[in-house]
Amino acid sequence: MPELWELSAEEIARRVRAREVSAAEVLESCLARTSQVEPLIGAYLEIFEGESRARAAEIDRRLAAGEDPGALAGVPVALKDNLSLEGRALTCGSRILAGYLAPYTATAVERLIAAGAVPVGRANMDEFAMGSSCESSAYQPTRNPWDLSRVPGGSSGGPTAAVAAGSVPLAFGSDTGGSIRQPAALCGVVGVKPTYGRVSRYGLVAFASSLDQIGPIARNVRDAALGLQVIAGADPRDATASEEPVGDYLERIEEGIAGQRIGVIREIDVAGLGGEVARNWQASLDRLAAAGAELVEVSVPSIGAAVAVYYVVATSEASANLARFDGVRYGFRSPEADNLADLYFESRGEGFGPEVKRRIMLGTFALSSGYYQAYYGRARGVLERMRRELDAAFGKAGLLVTPTTPSAAFRLGEKVDDPLAMYLSDIFTTPANLAGITATAVPSGAGSDGLPLSLQILGPRFGEAGVFRAARAFERELGWVVAPGFRGAEVGAG
Amino acid sequence: MALTPEDVKKIATLARLRFTPGEEERFAGQLAHVVEYIDQLQEFAGDVPDASAPGVRESEDLSQECLPRERFLANAPASMDGFLLVPEIKGGGGDA
């Protein structure tokens, strides 16, 4: 019989609601698993032991009183360290927010708690969600549960590694250019970037406000759908949260993709990537066809410019959003300054890490007088063109597919000194953020090196139900089990 | 375009960031490399539609309660009598 920590979120909630197990038992199983794997992977910045036990006990009390705590009753969840939970520390993986306590709770987190979920900790991330390896966290690197010498991806590396390692069945991160999907790919789990506006951003620390979305990370597609179901929907506290009805993501999720037209983007040359990624991609296309999908070719001519557009738009917005961290109102203040202007320069200079500084610099440059039109203006224009091309592609095929990443997990340290190489690991994920559409990363098996690879399924705005249906059909066809081997543990654990 | 260490100094001043001389040099190289990559956008000159802002529903302009002062100030690095405390506001600054 599987241990409780091995169960899906859906199964945990079912058993807890049926009072077959208690929320406390589930939590203890997950905390015990966490204490085994955490020394190996370093997924958390803080574990809420006391608070999570109190919350689980409260859920058990409510069940005993005949109440239904909700769709995620007793499900332990990890939260990326940029999601506010009132009274808890919130650092975004940055030294500049050391000592900051969230004064309110994010809408998405509020909805999780209202549905009976039990937040177990703050999970590690690249500083301010800027990075693709989790190495830019000011506090610690996180390691990939499949191979401890490799990165888990980023920026949501902590929550994703936690899910893959079995610490929690479900976690929540944010995705601005691939920050949920890329780590999900590298850790062999499912990650969802919802349509822009599907989830309220209230209480999510802003990186690039026109691109950021909160989304779920899970070991299977049904759990990811359930996780999004709980947090999705309108919110008066976020004007960009859409009032489009949410619908039921699980209702038709098993219906398969027989006859579904799925588009393959002509301009993405996966064969050119060679090796395991190209082989796995071809196998994935064969699986989609075996599941009954009709593969069609579509054209998105400007897609090759996505990373360039992304690194102008995202850094421009970041340079404005991060202006608020000035050593005056909250967070780190440099003790060196004896006047206000120096306080800004010193606090930001000491408080931000190198990747955040690079991006603030790039954004400041793109928005600066004389360069604005050539960079920011041009990038917005290309973005608009890409959005239209993708709309046209969705007219020919209900869904599109690409690999999620151009490679499997790379080694720690491999790309830290080459920012552009790091940025290019987002080459397939950035278009969905730019176009505001939804995309899900679903495991597509492993290469001969045993490292997971991933298929990305993209859907039109608010097309989540269709994407989940296809991802579920693909998952069924593949029969993937998330069972990381912690390669390298025998060396470090002794 | 090429970014010189002087350009980097100027951008750092606009961005209110202090760098060590070593950082300045390293960043100049790295940023130049990224800007060179981003310059591919120039190929789209005259070939892109006007960028439209994403649709945003305007909420009603109503006054609402904001975060209570004491909860806000609980995160402040320094405060006094219900106000934020900052050092001398004159002098200092960047290299500009």
Summarize the entry for a quick read.
With 494 residues, chain A is α/β, with parallel strands linked by helices.
The CATH architecture of the domain at 4-255 in chain A can be given as Alpha-Beta Complex
Largest interface: A-B, 67 and 54 residues
The main pleated sheet of chain B reads as: 2 strands, antiparallel
Would you give the CATH topology of the domain at 5-44 in chain B?
Histone, subunit A
**Alpha-carbon Rg of chain B, integer:** 22 Å
CATH architecture of the domain at 5-44 in chain B: Orthogonal Bundle
What is the string of SSEs of chain B from the N terminus onward?
HHHEE
The best one-word shape of chain A is globular
Overall SS class of chain B: mainly alpha
Describe this structure in words.
The complex is a heterodimer of chains A (494) and B (96). Chain A has helices at 9-17, 23-41, 49-64, 107-114, 157-165, 181-187, 221-231, 275-290, 306-321, 340-351, 354-367, 373-396, 419-423, 430-435, 464-478, 489-492, and strands spanning 44-47, 76-80, 118-123, 170-175, 190-193, 213-218, 261-265, 294-298, 399-403, 438-446, 452-459. The longest helix of chain A is centred in the C-terminal third of the chain and has 24 residues, at 373-396. In chain A, α8 crosses α15 and α9 packs across α12 (373-396). In chain A, strands 1-3-2-4-6-5-10-11-9-7-8 form an eleven-stranded mixed beta sheet, sandwiched between helices. Chain A has 494 residues and is of the alpha/beta class. Chain A contains 16 helices and eleven strands. In chain A, α4 (107-114) links the parallel β2 (76-80) and β3 (118-123). The radius of gyration of chain A is 21 Å and the shape is globular. Chain A starts with 8 loop residues before the first helix and ends with a helix. Among the domains of chain A are: 4-255, Amidase signature (AS) domain (Amidase signature (AS) enzymes, Alpha-Beta Complex); 304-380, no CATH class. Chain B is mostly helical and 96 residues long. Chain B has a domain at 5-44: Histone, subunit A, CATH 1.10.20. Chain B has helices at 5-14, 21-38, 69-73; strands at 79-80, 83-84. In chain B, strands 1-2 form a two-stranded antiparallel sheet. In chain B, β1 (79-80) and β2 form a beta hairpin. In chain B, α1 crosses α2. The relative contact order of chain B is 0.14. The model of chain B has no long low-confidence stretch (mean pLDDT 84). Classes of the chains: A alpha/beta (494), B mainly alpha (96). Chains A and B meet through α9, α10, α11, α12 and α13 of A and α1 and α2 of B.
